[in-house]
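Folding problem:
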Amino acid sequence: MRDGKLKTASLGLGRGMEQLLNSACSTGLYEIISVADGVLSNAEELAQKYNCTAFDDYRQFVLQNDIDVLIVAEPLYKCVEYVKAAINKKCSIIKLIPTATNFELAAELIKLAEKNNVKYITAAPARFAPGFERLGDYLKTIDRRELSFINICASFGSNFFQPIESDTQSDRKLAGGGVMLHDCFELLSLVVENFSLPSQIYALLTNQNPDKKAKQYLGEDTVTASLVFNDLIGTFLAAKQTGAAAAPPPIRIYGAQNNIIATPNRLAVYDSNDSLITEHKYPLNREKCITEMLIDFGRAMLEPDKYKMRSSPYLDLATMAFVEAAYLSTRTGMPESPLKFLKIAESAGGRLTAKENFPFI
């Protein structure tokens, strides 16, 4: 730290990184000391703005800098060894979604961070959208046992709310033009945070490409899944949306007394006859969600005794287990358990993040 600020660097400058760094500086909690990108001219241009160093050699970038926080925008297949090196130098990581390319790597990185007494957190600013925050507050006031069914829908169109693009959305070659479950990381994380990990997931996916060989390498067009929780059941759908029709709400929850609809900027509660009981609407600002996420992380890093970070490595890992179980189910044709992946990771050696007081524990 320097002058009460976290010495911060960026690995990769894609996915709106300049705006993210602007938001970090605006909080007064971060000082940008270095940037790195595969294209040196891009790094040098941004470095002039922050009066910091620029690199295109990621190894030298990590070795020559003393960093408190590294924001990783590059997909891990391009830089995972340098991220590990930064962690071993006692540097905390903010990884733009998803946590990693798969559950095994996510568990490895989180364990490595814990071994070095630093944080490895996934940037999920959609958690801080006002409608979703209000949903969490509302669920704390009711008896969740009255809820029976949850419907989750990710409609990838012009209205899909994703403050920071995922790896696959920003890299079309990696995505193959399809919808990947990793793109739904924030929405799935919200469900896990407020409810639980499903005990079972049965998932199907499809790709409409007529070339059978190409289907093996392209992302899926549609994913659907049935979910079984401890006290309720649910469905999940992710698909591309075309046309100008309004997208369905991301979250619908049905109960014995009330039904709930949640979007990033709205929470509405209806009675069993579908009559509106209460409604809350909020202005929605992408930059504000990113700023609040950075404030949450920065305060907890600088004053851990005073502030508790809302983001949690265990929540991120549980979300990755959700994704991994869904993909496994599409291959086996059988229901799969996300908890199985967490148990395997725990038995593989090393300690995982302490299970915090989330509903899914």
Remarks:
- The domain at 6-126+287-311 is CATH 3.40.50.720 (Rossmann fold).
- The chain has a mean pLDDT of 88.
- The longest helix spans residues 313-332.
- Residues 199 and 339 are 7 Å apart (CA to CA).
